[in-house]
Amino acid sequence: MMRALLALRSSIVVVIVVVLVPSITNSRGVNSSSDAPLTSIPFDLYHTSDALLKEIKSLVLRHPDTLAMETVKMGNRGYAAEVLVVTYDREMKHDNEKSKFRILMSFGQHGRELITSEVALQLLSVLAEEHNILNMDPVSITKELDNIVIKVVPMENLNGRKLVEAGDLCERRNGRGVDLNRNWGVDWGKKEKDYDPYEENPGTAPFSEPEAQIMRQLAKSFEPHIWVNVHSGMEALFMPYDHKNTTPDGHMSNLMELLLWDVNRIHFEEKCLVGSGGGLVGYLAHGTTTDYMYDIVKVPMAFTFEIYGDSEASSKDCFKMFNPVDKLEFNKAVNRWSEAFLTLFRLGPSRLATTAGLRKWDSTGGKVIDGSLESNKDNKIDGLDLGYQRANIDRQIEFELGLCGSKTVPLPLLFRLIFQTAELGILKA
């Protein structure tokens, strides 16, 4: 019944989204007024790309015991790119990062989505304990992160961001006009009827772009348990797939969806869309990073988070469409999404086993191009150790009752836990 209810709920959302999303995501079919004044970047709220990266580097230098950084450079055919990677590890000098739970996050993959990199800066400041978030105990937060390594790419598309700062406020592609979120190898190059090269140019081949090559190399070497690609344009918590209107089959897919609903309930009053990107955005996207991370790199939990969107902005007013321009809305977005990521860091590991307990898993994605080197990887999971899962469910009940401030199990939580345990075979139908 729970699955049926979730399916019904998703179906209702899809009907709404198909109608609304074109007005909040990009230039596809938007009928907003062309007479509205265009919004320029309010630099009293936003950093320039140089200033933001400089501030992040200074933050890292102030906290060498927990933060480290590297700049990865790559280029081809006369085009070069560089990506800053920041690593958070509270025991950096003592433990091998591969023995810990690993999270990889990218912000600023599309040049015009400035708010995402501002969230990255805020999140790193919180992790470094230089910034406190209301209602969250920094000591408790950092203690829970002892066994986690987080790699943050605060601005994946620096070259595209520079074009935006120079006045091309609608530019989402990289410095030579390629959409980095269409340049990956799963279902690469397929074009829908509404294909717009300005929005979705996939490049000359999968991984033709240095930025995508850097990110693929980082993912392969780091082998994350959770991947999060952070965008703006709407408010949503997406899981695979982007290239088709469905989510993956199996227990791992159920765990991803439950985790997203938890984040949605705790921080967003269940107002964010939750589910498949291809099923909820209103169009299919091919060659995306998240689909590749899930199907080829075998990241157990792969997500795309959409953190802000102005549905009333003109289609030509790109900055306002993708970024808050009011100080109150800016601070609200930065703070609550930083809180949401901290919750993801806390709940994610409890939903997965330790590295030693992981089992192999297989996914059923789209056509893979240029993925032969990765397609045979088999060191990730399709489920959890049963005893570990049962213990996690016990901890989940305790955690969520604490959030609810109650000693009794609320009915929606009870139904969800019954469904979850039934999936594990703990309860017999």
From TrEMBL:
It holds the Pfam family Peptidase_M14. One of its GO terms (cellular component) is extracellular space. GO terms for biological process: proteolysis. This is Peptidase M14 domain-containing protein. InterPro entries: At5g42320_M14_CPD, Peptidase_M14. It comes from Ensete ventricosum (Abyssinian banana). PROSITE patterns: PEPTIDASE_M14 (PS52035). GO terms for molecular function: metallocarboxypeptidase activity; zinc ion binding. SMART domains: Zn_pept. SUPFAM superfamilies: Zn-dependent exopeptidases. Signal peptide: none annotated. The active site is at 306 (proton donor/acceptor).
